[in-house]
């Protein structure tokens, strides 16, 4: 009916099978590349999104099956919690201006800040971070072996020097570091409006806590404990500045990196 020979049909069929195998081999290679390029952090949803960006037509289910077949599993973390908030003090508390409104219309409109514990064989470490609610970028951070006011001040000053914001809302918990006289005075000097969570309500600062959870799930607890404080500093710098801010796709901003999302904002508003 098709006016082709039997041998011609079988030759075409073999050719089609060969092309399918070649395509699958290329797909497996790209999935492997994205998996290891993310330091074994990306799972099938993010790798699928990266493949779509490259022009591949493939389902997330297929990506997941290929990853399982090859034993490529995104990192999982054990639960571990150290208390870093000391709200048992009589220092002034700022009103809850943010009030769980985590939406933002531009960069440097709302910042959220928090401290988290970082395990290290050489001794305890504490990370103070400040996240921009619009871009999801970590705009300021500092690592120290002491959970002091100086730690959060250095993170704040770094963020301000990098972004020079005007009228940004700075939201944190009620920790003594954020409620200290030095910190409140610095916020006032920089023209930053303070906001603090309600007592014992972790949901009031959920976004920065979510970042710390991602950091620990993807990077801290899925790998051997840092041997030295210097190693912790170097590897955290690489993760935050080069991977999280500039490379890691974020589902809440269209699977773009925070830096790329910020660049696009200024391109379209210029």
Automatic annotation (TrEMBL):
Function (record text): Involved in the transposition of the insertion sequence.
Integrase catalytic domain span: 103-266
Name by which UniProt lists this protein: Transposase
NCBIfam families the record matches: transpos_IS3 (NF033516)
């Amino acid at each position: 009916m098709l006016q082709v020979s039997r041998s011609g049909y079988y030759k075409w069929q073999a050719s089609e099978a060969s092309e399918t195998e070649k395509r699958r081999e290329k797909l497996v290679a790209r999935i492997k590349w994205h998996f290891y390029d993310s330091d074994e952090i990306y799972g099938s949803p993010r790798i699928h999104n990266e493949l779509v960006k490259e022009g591949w037509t493939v389902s997330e289910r297929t990506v997941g099956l290929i990853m399982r077949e090859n034993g490529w599993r995104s990192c999982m973390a054990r639960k571990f919690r150290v208390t870093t908030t000391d709200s048992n003090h009589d220092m002034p508390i700022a009103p809850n201006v943010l009030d769980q409104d985590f939406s933002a219309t531009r960069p440097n409109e709302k910042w959220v800040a928090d401290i988290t514990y970082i395990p290290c064989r050489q001794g305890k470490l504490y990370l103070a971070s400040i996240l921009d609610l619009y871009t999801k970028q970590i705009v300021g951070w500092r690592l120290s072996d002491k959970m002091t006011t100086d730690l959060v001040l250095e993170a704040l000053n770094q963020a301000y020097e990098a972004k020079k914001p005007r009228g940004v809302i700075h939201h944190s918990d009620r920790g003594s570091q954020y409620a200290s006289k030095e910190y409140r005075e610095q916020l006032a000097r920089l023209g930053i409006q303070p906001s603090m969570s309600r007592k014992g309500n972790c949901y009031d600062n959920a976004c920065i806590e979510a970042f710390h959870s991602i950091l620990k799930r993807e990077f801290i607890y899925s790998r051997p404990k840092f041997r030295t404080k210097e190693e912790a500093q170097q590897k955290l710098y690489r993760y935050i500045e080069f991977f999280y801010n500039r490379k890691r796709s974020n589902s809440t901003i269209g699977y773009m990196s925070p830096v790329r999302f910020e660049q696009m904002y200024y391109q379209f508003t210029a």
